Amino acid sequence: MGVSTSSPEKGPEGSQGPQDDAIAVVTVDFPPVNALPVQGWFALADAVRAAGRDPRVRCVVLAAEGRGFNAGVDIKEIQARGASALAGANRGCFEAFAAVYECEVPVVAAVQGFCLGGGIGLVGNADVIVASEDATFGLPELDRGALGAATHLARLVPQHLMRALYYTSRTATAAELHAHGSVWRVVPRDELRNAALELAREIAAKDGELLRLAKAAINGIDPVDVRRSYRFEQGFTYEASTVGVADRVRDAFGKEGG
User: Fold this and answer.
1) What pLDDT, in 10s, does the model give residues 58-69?
2) Amino acid 257: pLDDT
3) What is the Cα–Cα distance from 104 to 214, expressed in whole angstroms?
4) In this model, does residue 185 exceed pLDDT 50?
5) Distance separating the N- and C-terminal Cα atoms of the chain
6) What are φ and ψ of residue 133, in 5° steps?
7) H-helix or E-strand spanning residue 233
8) CA–CA dist 171, 152 (Å, integer)
9) Burial of 178: CB neighbours in 10 Å, binned 0-12, 13-18, 19+
């Protein structure tokens, strides 16, 4: 359980070739639904940043074990610990989202099942998304007493659809996002990891130094500063908490009629 990093292309000991470490897979595993605790977000940020700094790595695959890719923050932890956990989750999400965006090499997100809340922040900042046929994407923030990640949802769907999904807490399917051009490929669930690695190999075949320059150049021409935009959104999460509306909605989360 937790966050782990592997090099799936490595062969048997003694058979390592020059490209064996070119792909790093960062895997999240927080059963039962990959709702990350505060320290989980910071661990994820550290793992992605470390993989990107490794001069041997040319592409990072962000993956998850279990039923779904990511269910956002651990609501139960926030309910139990209150303001300190809320502040920690906000900082942790900020660091994890930024780590994906600022990773020195391209990041391919391999998404299965549900991708909700903080999951949208991760994939919205990834370079490419490969998804399973059962993948769904959404921001149920208004149902959980929170705000945020509209910055990242807006990178996946057109503006008016983003607003409709945000206000209703509805989800979009992988096929729908593929139609909008934000998901590269949709595959059966049992083919997801191989599909992500196939794309990662194609990327990692390029010159490593040039890939890092390309990533920096593409980030430099982005029309929206995702760090500043998301931080602006987080301010309203704090406001909702300060006036009590966040607690009221969050306390009803998961309860009958809530």
Assistant:
1) 999 999 999 999
2) 52
3) 9
4) yes
5) 30
6) -65, -25
7) helix 226-242
8) 14
9) middle
HSE value, Cβ hemisphere, 13 Å, CA-based, for 50: 12
Q: Report CA torsion sign: 128, 133, 138, 143.
A: negative
Kindly report the backbone phi and psi dihedral angles of residue 137, in degrees, each rounded to the nearest multiple of 5, phi listed first.
Answer: -125, 135
Question: Identity (one letter) of the amino acid at 187?
Answer: V
Among residues 109, 128, 101, 119, which one has the least CA distance to residue 172?
119
180 near 158, Cβ under 8 Å? yes
Beta strands in 183-251 (DSSP E): 185-187
Sorted by sequence, the CB contacts under 8 Å of residue 43 that are 6+ apart come out as 2, 3
- Cα gap 21→54, rounded to integer Å: 9
pLDDT tens per residue across span 41-54: 999 999 999 999 99
Count of residues in the chain: 258
Question: How many CB atoms lie under 10 A from the CB of residue 251?
Answer: 13
At residue 85 the predicted structure's pLDDT band, cuts being 50, 70 and 90, is confident
- Helix (H) / strand (E) element for 159: namely helix 159-168
Cα distances from 203 to residues 3, 176, 215, in angstroms, run 24, 25, 12
Q: Which residue, among 144, 149, 143, 162, has the nearest Cα to 123 in the 3D structure?
A: 149
**Do 81 and 250 contact (CB within 8 A), yes or no?**
no
- Smallest CA-to-CA distance from 131 within 68, 203, 66, 83 is with 68
pLDDT of residue 197: 98
Q: What pLDDT is recorded for position 15?
A: 43
pLDDT score for 249: 83
